[in-house]
Amino acid sequence: MDIEKLARKDVQALTPYMSARRLGGQGDVWLNANESPFNNEYTINGAGLNRYSECQPDELIRAYADYAGVRPEQVLTSRGADESIELLIRTFCEAGEDSILFCPPTYGMYAISAETAGVERKIVPLTPEWQLNIAEIENNLDGVKLVFVCSPNNPTGNLIERKDIEALLEMTAGRALVVMDEAYIDFCPEASTVDLLVRYPNLAILRTMSKAFALAGLRCGFTIANQQVIQLMQKVIAPYPVPVPVTEIACQALSEAGLARMKYQVLDLSANRAYLQAGLSMLPGVQVFDGYANYLLVKFDDAELLFTALWDNGIILRRSPIEGCIRISIGNREECEKTLTFIRQQLA
């Protein structure tokens, strides 16, 4: 019996998202997954593990609402922002009927989450300046329920222009939700769209503790939206999505001391990003694009040859879907220095 034939046809044909861990590699410098280099310590009580957790732990919801500057009823927590993507698609899209729209180059999970749910994908590429093509989006909105926009965008690192985000929200009012993926917004909080929630009921915002909070292994994310959107998502989410230790650690990270530490570490990473950008920009045949998150997109004359040399020498970076480009996560100063030195030697 061929078990594969029992699977849905779209799943049989699906190419899974190739995360950093799936791609593997061996080395001592890991700058391929946009993780934080800071390994912060936490204490876990461990009491009450014989009982199920709350679906939406009140302490955690209130802590993140305070941090984000919204009301608790505007927050839903999930297993990373990836689960939020799936929840939004399952909540608002009918399989075989509705569509999502996204604008590559961007995060690959929007497409995969829709595909696994049997939801069509509409693609409107970003402009050559990596901004929204508003006119083309408007021409492709029929049947679209969700428009995904990432800012800072992964993998390009740039911010999407505020006026275009507002134009998109106006254009989709009463027709679709605009989902702003703000996974990296803690590195540039002034660019958040959270203030637009009061004007646009069709706005939803994705957040995560994986990046600036240095908690990639915790798998804790959030959706921020108006109360009606959150209530609908609560109908779809699993009964017990937040393990008790996740709540304990996340609340410590969102405490006054935890937030102070996060902001200090963001400053440190921003300084390392500036160091790496300045050093790479001085090399021949190298173009470094401005970045507002914890990574840089860099174009090289022979990116594949350089990537392989780095990989073979234990410096693990990330290939980019953008031709000639490599994405470099920002690590600690030692990791950045080692990476820059190796690239400098290769290009000499």
UniProtKB/TrEMBL annotation:
<dbReference type="GO" id="GO:0000105">
    <property type="term" value="P:L-histidine biosynthetic process"/>
</dbReference>
<dbReference type="InterPro" id="IPR001917">
    <property type="entry name" value="Aminotrans_II_pyridoxalP_BS"/>
</dbReference>
<dbReference type="GO" id="GO:0004400">
    <property type="term" value="F:histidinol-phosphate transaminase activity"/>
</dbReference>
<dbReference type="InterPro" id="IPR015421">
    <property type="entry name" value="PyrdxlP-dep_Trfase_major"/>
</dbReference>
<feature type="modified residue" description="N6-(pyridoxal phosphate)lysine">
    <location>
        <position position="211"/>
    </location>
</feature>
<comment type="subunit">
    <text>Homodimer.</text>
</comment>
<dbReference type="InterPro" id="IPR015422">
    <property type="entry name" value="PyrdxlP-dep_Trfase_small"/>
</dbReference>
<protein>
    <recommendedName>
        <fullName>Histidinol-phosphate aminotransferase</fullName>
        <ecNumber>2.6.1.9</ecNumber>
    </recommendedName>
</protein>
<dbReference type="InterPro" id="IPR004839">
    <property type="entry name" value="Aminotransferase_I/II_large"/>
</dbReference>
<dbReference type="InterPro" id="IPR015424">
    <property type="entry name" value="PyrdxlP-dep_Trfase"/>
</dbReference>
<comment type="pathway">
    <text>Amino-acid biosynthesis; L-histidine biosynthesis; L-histidine from 5-phospho-alpha-D-ribose 1-diphosphate: step 7/9.</text>
</comment>
<keyword id="KW-0808">Transferase</keyword>
<comment type="similarity">
    <text>Belongs to the class-II pyridoxal-phosphate-dependent aminotransferase family. Histidinol-phosphate aminotransferase subfamily.</text>
</comment>
<dbReference type="InterPro" id="IPR005861">
    <property type="entry name" value="HisP_aminotrans"/>
</dbReference>
<dbReference type="Pfam" id="PF00155">
    <property type="entry name" value="Aminotran_1_2"/>
</dbReference>
<feature type="domain" description="Aminotransferase class I/classII large">
    <location>
        <begin position="45"/>
        <end position="341"/>
    </location>
</feature>
<keyword id="KW-0663">Pyridoxal phosphate</keyword>
<keyword id="KW-0032">Aminotransferase</keyword>
<keyword id="KW-0368">Histidine biosynthesis</keyword>
<dbReference type="GO" id="GO:0030170">
    <property type="term" value="F:pyridoxal phosphate binding"/>
</dbReference>
<keyword id="KW-0028">Amino-acid biosynthesis</keyword>
